[in-house]
Amino acid sequence: MRGKVRRTAMLSLLSTIGFLLMFVEIPLPMFPAFLKIGVSEIPALIGAILFGPLAGVAVELIKNVLHFLLSNQGGMGVGELSNFVAGSTFVVVSVFFMQKLKQSKVNFWLGMTAGTTAMAAVMSVANYYFFMPAFAYVMGMSVHDIVGWSQEANSSITSLWALILYAVLPFNLIKGLAEAIITYPIYNRLRPVIQSK
């Protein structure tokens, strides 16, 4: 019972931290303004490492629901849904591989590589077929308008496919790498706790 309470309290804390970290975003040169690097997946990653992949998904869900309810900026939840899909893919695949390969420093990086690759692939497909059209619709724009807006940052973006190839795909690769680098020292601290379970 005590363990369940502690786990619930920890996941609540991680969800709150993840929600707050959603406001810490850094724009990248050569990328459209709506693609900003953040680190809000790190609390979910820590939760997943400690308690399993589904715990990480729970943190992702709670932080995005909080963001939608408390600070949504008119996207009707499209941004939060996109963040949830990206974060959940990254966290679940990363930790799944870590657990399958047993906890170690090398396997941490193998897991992060798998998670980053999966996130980049899933978000490329999801943005092409769903998120970009959905965002354009709720904002009263067309996909062509988004492409034109993105072209201001990178003249190579001349179509939705080019937007995915030159912006969405590399953005998610950079995002995954950045979050893995920041998480690594935290993971090293947690590893003895994880291995003692």
UniProtKB/TrEMBL annotation:
InterPro entries: ECF_trnsprt_substrate-spec, RibU. GO terms for molecular function: riboflavin transmembrane transporter activity. Gene3D superfamilies: 1.10.1760.20. Its main location: membrane. GO terms for cellular component: plasma membrane. It is a multi-pass membrane protein. It is found in: Cell membrane. It comes from the Bacteria. Pfam families: ECF_trnsprt (PF12822). Keywords: Cell membrane, Membrane, Transmembrane, Transmembrane helix, Transport. The chain crosses the membrane at residues 12-35, 42-61, 81-98, 110-131, 160-187. Belongs to the prokaryotic riboflavin transporter (P-RFT) (TC 2.A.87) family. Probably a riboflavin-binding protein that interacts with the energy-coupling factor (ECF) ABC-transporter complex. This is Riboflavin transporter.
